[in-house]
Amino acid sequence: MTVQLKINHLTKKFKDVTALDDINLELHSGEVLGYIGPNGAGKSTTIRSILGILRPSMGSVEIFGMDAFKHASKIHEKLSYVPGDVYLWPNLTGGQTIDLLLKMNNQQHTNKTDKLIKDFGLDITKKNKTYSKGNRQKVALIAAFSTEAEIYIFDEPTSGLDPLNEEVFQNHLLKLKQQGKSILLSSHILSEVEKVADRIAIIKDGQIVETGTLEDMQYLTSTLVEATTKDEPIDLKNLSGVNNLVIEKNHVSFQIDAKNLNSVISYLTTLEIIKLKTTKPTLEQIFLQYYKVSGDK
Amino acid sequence: MLSIFKKTGYLTKTYLLKDWLLLIGTFLSIVFLVLGVATIFPTIYDSESSRIAMIETLKQPAMKAIIGVYHGDNSIGSFFSSVMLHWTAILGIIFAIIIAIKNTRNQEESNLSELLLSKSIGRLALPMASFLELFILFSAIFITNFIGLNLLNIDGLSTESAFLFSISTSLIALLFGTITIFFAQLANSSSGVNIMSYVLFLLSYIVVILGTQAKDNKLLWYSPLGWLSNLSLTDKNYYLPIILMIVSTIILISLSLFLQLHRDINSGLLPSSKGKDHASKLLAGFSSLNFKNQTTSMSIWIIVIFIAGLTYGSIFKDINKIVADNPYLTQIIAAQKNMMITNFSFMILGIFAIISLIPGLIHIYKIKNDETKGYLEIVHSKRVSRTKIFITYTGIGLLDTVLTFISGTLGLYIAQYQSLNNPISLNHFVNASSSFLSIIIFVISLGIILVTFVPKLTNLIWIVLYYGFFVIYFGKLFNMPNWAIDISLFGLINKNWTSPLETTYIITFVISTVILIILSLQKYKKRDLVY
User: pTM (2 decimals)?
Assistant: First the structure.
């Protein structure tokens, strides 16, 4: 797995506001990196720095070993991007726009393009200004997927799509992954990220607060445990790592950090377990937890 | 019935607050111009003898074509109203068109109208509030000008004349603003509304040019701008033009309201062509896309200015005729005959130079505006380099301006060649236009510097254009000092066919242009692309 994109200590300031604060991130070939964070956290600023639209205040972005700002147009020969808000020249049709976007990368309308148009079900003879948000997104997605590239960047690509088209999007994304392409997916739809992402980076207030696989994160965050034991587990409250403990006679529910799970289960075993259910946190729960925790700071 | 107008008052108030800077700017530029000139004129032309020569010039066909028909006597009041009538009206019309587009189709294109219509707001509140905004603005201008002119107590400008001057210049602006609201119902996009409004404006002007050359004033009735001349200010003081302006404004706003009810938001009533499913071979990339987007407006500007050139050129023979008809005048003017023709043509070329800067600068400023609208974000992710983006916008803008200017000059040349017995040689025209071109490209490079280095201040360039117009129009009338004329750039043009601009100036302008453009490109390559 080679590193296709590397962000080194990237800081971006707009006058007095620090939009990105010492960001480090890597994107490998054949992986999908989910990039999540609330509105205004710095997702789009990161992507714009990757695209060379913004000039880093400090640090650098390297793609294929080249500086993203200095060699932008060279890098973009092998990069494909779908913006979060797709604005297209109102007087062109969808078909013209797709062809034009391909031509800008010296590529052509191929059978693959036709297949994508069919898959997404887009009427390409309509003018861009008549399209809804979702349809404009389809135009950008079709152009992006039919572009031969090494890195694909999607900024909230499915926010205007219906569930059927969301699935079409995910299928094409997985195909790219199988071909060994690198994909950066910024999204609010966490179930989608959970489904397709190999690794996840969480950004908050311009800082990356966590990077890792979903399993890593689940390990770091607490697991919900529900158990019924023969004897009442009165000593649970003394064990470290136990939170939100509710004991109703011999039925108990609590949250436990993954690293303490073993000792707690051992204790429960001594009481004879009748029923045990552990639930891994969803990405959404992890996400909310990070935000609440850092929000309390 | 009233529900379709619901919240019109509230919306009008919002528009007034939202656009306050533009509205105050409009108000002040018009009021200062009218009252300022009315204050200064009597001091420059304090005696009748000092006025007579100038008034005789204004009565010549060439000048009539620019300022309209001279009415009244040699009093300062007649002199003032004849000189200022067209200028005040034109300024008002341009502002009215800008304001009217802003709150109609521009607002629809940014989806703001949709948001507004989702509120408890009447369907017709939107166009009605746009109209009321203009109505309130121009009423304020009318009242201020009227009171001001009366207080200044100008000799020869009766209260009635001052009233007619103030109300007609405001009403004509309101009328063109209403025409713009009307076009907003028809055109397919805001740029379509823009083109239609300005083309109609220029066509009205062309009719005035022709109308002022005719023996009677019949032709002038066919152009709203011609109605101004038909007021016969300070002489007969006719009211019919005022009534025509009011009636046509009422008809047009009613039609607009009716059409607004029968169209969808963000679409016009004119049919749009069926879309193509593929990009043609010609649409091959970023540059060709920009060129394609610009072709319609570019062709329209080129054609309209060519017609204007032809029209002005055809007046050249009348300059000769007047001289021939009147033996007394012949004696005085014969010596100056060629002088008058050259003076006139330099004036027209100057006006063409400034007009042709408009489409070019608008295109160059799209490097900022398209970015703000988000069209460029996806382009930046392609292998289109910043250099290419920069060269595309500036190159097409420059081309647009240069072609427009050459087209106007060509029209002027052809028409005078047809109408004069001893036409001015092509050589002379090439000489003069290359001088103007060096100034034009320099102004373009100033625009480029603004948009790359201080994009917030891009509008400053319009002051350069406005001041240039002002100097060409009024430089002589106001006895402006030489330095004030020279800094307008266009004032550097010496009214001499063989050397309109010294070669050293031309070379300086060209070299500065190249340097400024290179500097801008370097900056554009390095800056953040967020405005």
Answer: 0.82
